[in-house]
Amino acid sequence: MHHFTSIHDAYNIPQLVNEALLMKRAPYSDCFIGKNKTIGLLFFNSSLRTRLSTQKAAQNLGMNVMVMNVGADSWQLEMNEGVIMNGDKAEHVSEAAAVIGQYCDIVGLRSFPSLVNREDDYSELVLNQFMKYTGRPILSLESATRHPLQSLTDLITIQEHKKTARPKVVLTWAPHVKALPQCVPNSFAEWMNHSEVDFTIAHPKGYELAPEFSGNANICYDPKEAFEGADFIYAKNWSSYQDYGKILNSDPAWMVTMDKMKLTNTAKFMHCLPVRRNVVVEDAVLDSDHSIVVQQAGNRVWAAQTVLKEMLLSLAKKESPYLF
Ligand code: AN0
Ligand code: CP
After folding, report:
1. What's the CA gap between 279 and 302, in Å, rounded?
2. Is 208 within 8 Å of 242 (Cβ atoms)?
């Protein structure tokens, strides 16, 4: 695995999940694999889980870790080519990313979409510019359209908690006060569509994901119907893809409640976090045995550690092909 920016970089998904579960049982079994290798974790946006779990994962593999909040700690970066840089951006990505590539063996990057221009966001400009100019393997820490480390975590968590071979997994849209990216639902759908699950996406009309992400999932427009017989309820808000970046609905009927959880097959409740209590999901659900959100977040370490191990092995193969 050279880069990890989407499911398409993972050639054997069940093997990745198994490897992560083994890693969880023996966290330090590869503690020398990253010795003398440096990862730079670059954040254009806020993060709690991704930042800490990826740092911990890299340290468990013996890596050196540098973390930077881009723009806040460093200069504001210009991403577009051929611009007359007489505005507020002091440095171009072509120099900044190339310099970061001098210091780091792997570069992790978090950069949310603007939610203003769909074409720009879905072209993954920031991710692609870093890929082009660092000359290093890139680890996505959530880009404009995807959050693959989150989705791998989600699959690991479903594998751990499932009680049937082919569980019913429901991704349900939920209300929110802010317009949020489609990254988490896009990625979750993409990974579920490649997994042994019966997958449904429930959302109000107008919240359809891009067809390349929703794929063949069952689509349900009723806030209750999808819950019937579900083994996993995965809640997430996202803004509209069609009416790009807009909030079209804030109907509290879409909030996850204990009443709706009663329709399920004693489903586990999942959310990537951060979650707004009593907007997305009511207290009673988060505070009940249904909720596995904290265990889910704990699994972020094993997802990151498994992916980083694969990336380090791929680097080592390039550097010393005679050893393999
Ligand atoms: C972000 C999102 O929805 O993409 C990050 C989630 C991991 N959430 C918020 O900004 C609240
Ligand atoms: N789930 C997730 O990526 O959380 P953070 O935004 O806190 O990293």
Report:
1. 30
2. yes
Separation CA 41–CA 186 (nearest Å): 23
Closest residue by Cα to residue 55 from 69, 40, 44, 73: 40
Q: Which residue has the tokens 């840089």?
A: 85
110 membership: H or E segment, kind and range: strand 106-110
The band of 108, judged by pLDDT with boundaries at 50, 70 and 90, is very high
- Pocket probe for ligand 1: among 180, 247, 271, 300, the residue whose CB has the most ligand atoms within 8 Å is 180
Cis peptide before 167 (omega within 30 of 0): no
- Does the CB atom of residue 180 touch ligand 1 within 6 A? yes
Sign of CA dihedral 314, 317, 320, 323: positive
| Residues with Cβ within 8 Å of residue 23, at least 6 apart in sequence | 29, 30, 302, 305, 306, 309
Phi, psi of 34 (to 5 degrees): -105, 15
CA-CA-CA-CA dihedral for 316, 42, 236, 295, to nearest 10: 60
Please check whether residue 229 is in contact with residue 235, taking contact to mean a CB–CB distance below 8 angstroms.
no
Summarize pLDDT for 141-183 with one digit per residue, the tens. Answer: 999 999 999 999 999 999 999 999 999 999 999 999 999 999 9
The alpha carbon of 200 and the centre of ligand 1 are apart by a number of angstroms equal to 21
38-43 and 64-69: which strand pairing? parallel
Q: Return the residue whose CA atom lies nearest to atom 4 of ligand 2.
A: 49
List pLDDT tens digits, range 265-316. 999 999 999 999 999 999 999 999 999 999 999 999 999 999 999 999 999 9
* Strands lying side by side in the sheet with 106-110: 64-69, 38-43, 106-110, 138-140
Encoded tokens for 297: 């977040």
Q: Measured in angstroms, how far is the CA atom of residue 20 from the centroid of ligand 2?
A: 19
* Measured distance CA(138)–CA(130) in Å, rounded: 8
For residue 287, give the amino acid letter.
D
What is the structure's pLDDT at 323? 73
